[in-house]
Amino acid sequence: MRKTLFILFSISFFTCEDIIDIELNTSEPKLVIEASINWVKNTPGNEQNIKLSLSGAYFDVTTTPANNAQVSIFDSNNNEFVFIEDGNTGIYSNNNFIPELNGVFSLNINYKGEIYSATETLMSVASIDFVEQKNNGGFSGEETELKAYYTDPIDEENYYFFQFSNNLNLIPVLEVYDDEFNNGNQIFGFYTEEDLMSGDEVTIKNHGISQTFFEFMTILLLQNSEEGGGTFESIPATVRGNCINVSNPDNFPFGYFRLSEVDEVIYVVE
């Protein structure tokens, strides 16, 4: 695959334009599994979706759905929850899922004759106690800071996945935390945004997650941060989820099978 980049150089009184042709290696598309089962507190949790797509070229801006797969989740009693594709969207839905805190669930996907599987536990989460706002935060002193406080259970290893979203940005801000140095204490998830104004809404979601997902997301977030390197630098580590290809291990999938209890708060900026 070939992509062309244009680099402009301004030197003294003239400008020249160099064309750089970059050859990028291509590979067969891999299955991408987005299987996040979220049980929001005080809801039945019966309606769940799983998205399947195919990996694409580096500069592709669209994704290709993975159609006609057979998708099921099994609980520890071997009860099966079948997920049916909505048209040709690659989104597979189930409306009778039964969540269970600390329950062990197994994902099974049959796609083009190959079997993909993963096993994970549905993790509980501490409720958000309150949200604290600061209007002169950040490096500039002009950003709105929000701290979503929660009380960590004592004598347990707990891991948290925070998602902050608002009406200004399409992409949510993601953060992960553990309780290694805060076990049993009241701690907070942190969010800052310069363009927030009074009356704007910020949706805050706190997910309970396993240690393996915490480690997965830590690497993923690092690689997508400014500290993770430039566009053409080598990837510091291969990000592999907990899904495996049972039929053909060399044709491994991307993505993760996660099950979380979720506490959600919609905060109105003051």
Number of strands: 18
The number of distinct helices, counting runs of at least 4 residues, comes to 1
Whole-angstrom Rg: 22 Å
What is the 3D shape?
Answer: globular
Strand and helix order: EEEEEEEEEEEEEEEEHEE
User: What fraction, in percent, of the residue positions are helical?
Assistant: under 10%
Give the DSSP E fraction (strand runs of 2 or more residues).
Answer: over 45%
If strands are numbered along the chain, what order do they take across the biggest sheet?
3-4-8-7-6-9-10-18
Short description:
The protein is mainly β.
Describe the protein's architecture and organization.
The chain has 270 residues and is mainly beta. The chain is built from 1 helix and 18 strands. The relative contact order is 0.18. Mean pLDDT is 87; it is low at 1-15 and 226-235.
Layout of secondary structure:
Layout: E1 2-11, E2 14-23, E3 31-40, E4 48-54, E5 64-65, E6 70-74, E7 80-85, E8 91-94, E9 104-111, E10 114-123, E11 128-137, E12 143-151, E13 159-166, E14 173-178, E15 186-193, E16 201-209, H1 211-223, E17 244-245, E18 254-268
Parallel strand pairs: 3-18, 10-18
Antiparallel strand pairs: 1-2, 3-4, 4-5, 4-8, 6-7, 6-9, 7-8, 9-10, 10-17, 11-12, 12-15, 13-14, 13-16, 16-18
